[in-house]
């Protein structure tokens, strides 16, 4: 009769998310994972498979928990543009005070693994599509009630996705909150009806 696991596989998976998020796939060794997760190699391999299988599992967990939670902020406000602003404020706070100081696991993985891991590349593409859809929906709501400048609407959603990825890369340089806020202000000016009308 097999022994019962003496650890919570779900809680350990959360620790593994942080390990890979902070250092990346290649730089995170099995030995380091065992120490950080407080598991012996047999328990790690027996529960999660090899390092690549564990990474695939934590990547899905990150998308389901961290990224989905962030994206859902866009739709929470009745105002689409305010939802977008709230998303970027949340992003800036997480970069300065939270785990986003390590960047975004999705963006980091795209840079590190896209040329040799088609499965991760596909997952990243789906994530970007969800983010773009959330931005497009928010812009459509704001356009419908006249909150946006003339000619600005859902077609600007890809720009916002690119802007997010730029901030995610910049996060690794440890920018100040003031610098991030200034960048976001400039980046969102084209969606501000008051500013565009004044020009």
Keywords:
single chain; 199 residues; mainly alpha; Tetracycline Repressor, domain 2; 10 helices; 71% helix; 0% strand
Write the layout of secondary structure elements.
Layout: H1 9-23, H2 30-37, H3 41-48, H4 51-76, H5 80-97, H6 105-113, H7 118-144, H8 157-170, H9 177-187, H10 193-198
Helix pairs in contact: 1-4, 4-5, 4-7, 5-7, 5-9, 6-7, 7-8
Short description:
Helix content is 71%, strand content 0%. The protein is an all-alpha fold and 199 residues long.
Explain this structure.
The protein has helices at 9-23, 30-37, 41-48, 51-76, 80-97, 105-113, 118-144, 157-170, 177-187, 193-198. With 199 residues, the chain is mainly α. It has a single domain, classed as Tetracycline Repressor, domain 2, CATH 1.10.357. The radius of gyration is 20 Å and the shape is elongated. The N and C termini lie far apart (76 Å).
């Amino acid at each position: 009769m097999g022994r019962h696991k003496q650890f919570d596989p779900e809680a350990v998976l959360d620790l593994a998310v942080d390990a890979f998020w902070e250092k990346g796939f290649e730089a995170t060794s099995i030995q380091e994972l065992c120490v950080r997760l407080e598991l012996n190699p047999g328990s790690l391999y027996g529960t999660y498979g090899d390092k690549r299988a564990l990474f695939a599992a934590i990547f899905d967990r990150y998308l389901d928990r961290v990224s989905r939670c962030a994206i859902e902020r866009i739709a929470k406000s009745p105002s689409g543009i305010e939802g977008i602003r709230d998303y970027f404020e949340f992003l800036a706070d997480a970069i300065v005070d939270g785990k986003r100081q390590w960047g975004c696991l999705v963006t980091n993985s795209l840079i590190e693994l896209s040329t040799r891991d088609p499965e991760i590349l596909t997952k990243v593409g789906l994530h970007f599509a969800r983010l773009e859809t959330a931005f497009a929906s928010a812009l459509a709501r704001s356009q419908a009630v006249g909150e946006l400048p003339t000619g600005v609407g859902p077609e600007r959603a890809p720009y916002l996705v690119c802007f997010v990825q730029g901030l995610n890369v910049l996060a690794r340089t440890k920018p100040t909150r003031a610098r991030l806020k200034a960048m976001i202000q400039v980046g969102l000016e084209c969606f501000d009806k008051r500013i565009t009308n004044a020009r």
